[in-house]
Amino acid sequence: MEEPRDFLSGLIVGGLIGAAFGLLFAPEPGDRTRERLRRQSEEWGSRAREQADRVAERVRDTAGSVAEQVRERADEFATKARTSADDVIKRGRDTFDEKTEHLRRAFEDGRDSARGRSRERRSPEGSEG
To answer: Which residues lie within the region annotated Disordered (predicted)?
Structure first.
């Protein structure tokens, strides 16, 4: 991408230098040559300013485009992060609920088992007496 730009820059600079030498060595009186050089330099200055304005505009457009892409990617990342966090929280809650339910059942089974054993122990004693 740099090679065409370098070639174009070289072509423009070479043309400007060639034109300047052509004017300097032209068979005209000094006043006319100086006037031509002045007009030509004003024209080249104007062209250079126009080119600089075009380049600046392209840079602004490109920078704006890049900034927009960065914003979009940041929004996408934030959305994915939120979604992932929500998924992790949901899985954590589900696991907590499952473990709580498992522990509750184990407690109830243990309690019921302890009650049943104490009844079994009491029953034979009550029938003997």
So the answer is: 28-72, 100-129
Task: Show the domain range for 120.
Answer: 2-128
The model's pLDDT over 16-71, given as tens digits with 9 standing for 90+, comes to 888 877 767 766 677 887 788 788 888 988 888 898 888 888 888 888 888 999 99
* CB 38 within 8 Å of CB 32: no
Q: Are 33 and 24 in contact (CB under 8 A)?
A: yes
Query: What CA–CA distance (Å, rounded) separates 70 from 7?
Result: 32
11: its two tokens: 């072509």
Q: 50 with 36: CB under 8 angstroms?
A: no
Give the pLDDT confidence score for residue 28 in this predicted structure. Answer: 67
